Amino acid sequence: MSELTGKVALVTGGSRGIGAAVAKRLAASGATVALTYVQAEDRAKEVVKEIEADGGTAVALRSDLTEPEAAAAAVEQTVREFGRLDIVVNNAGFLTYGPLEQVSAEELDRVLAVDVRSVFLTAQAASRHLGEGGRIISVGSCFNGHVPGGNFVLQATAKSALVGLTKGLARELGPRGITATIVDPGPIDTDMNPADGETAEFQSGITALGRYGVAEDIAAAVVFLAGPGGRYITGTSIAVDGGYTV
Q: Which controlled-vocabulary keywords does the entry list (predicted)?
């Protein structure tokens, strides 16, 4: 029996990159998975097909997390589909960088809506269904611990907000046996931040290992926290960043 057999997981932003890797790794560990997407319906359905081809169960749900009610709706739809909810992975977000003076109010609102508001509302809705052993895992950023230069103020602002949110969730939900944690990726090779992109050499150079990681590195950490190994870990962040913050 796999360590997550019988569990139901919701992964936001699960159609590509880190989210897709997390969804597939959770399913391979025995969980039933609901994953959300905004526009990439074909890619989301392909992730579902891959999970089903390997004997797992999954469903893709369209959810635009810039819409105020979308996060709670995704939680409720997951529970209607599978009857329960045990694991929430808040992965959806934007990789945004650029000079401070070029950040518009609209861009600020959009990033905070997905990276902060939706996480809060997802956790709020999920708390009504999570029981003993429940997990809320958010994908943060290495910028929580190390802002290497200019142009990252919006990203650092949004992801750092997850720290206080996660500590608050850990305290409030801990008495019910529910944990809340963050996985902070460093430079990860995805289509949002490719290992051959314009800032790749700079990012790789900051890491202790001198290279990018892959989405499966983050997925492995998420599944560890979701399983028995994560039962006494809460209110904290785990860096999976190749030594970016050393």
A: Oxidoreductase
Q: Does domain 8-238 have CATH number 3.40.50.720?
A: yes
In 3-state terms, what secondary structure has residue 80? helix
Region of 6 (left: φ > 0; alpha: ψ -120 to 50; beta: rest) is left
Q: What is the pLDDT of residues 126-151, one digit of tens each?
A: 999 999 999 999 999 998 778 877 88
**In 3-state terms, what secondary structure has residue 102?**
helix
Residues 6 or more apart whose CB falls under 8 angstroms from that of 188 comprise 17, 18, 212, 213, 214, 215, 217, 218
Q: Which two tokens stand for residue 124?
A: 């709020």
Which pLDDT value is given to residue 132?
Answer: 98
Tell me the domain boundaries of the chain: 8-238
Q: What is the pLDDT of residue 1?
A: 57
Q: Is 64 left (phi over 0), alpha (psi -120 to 50) or beta?
A: beta
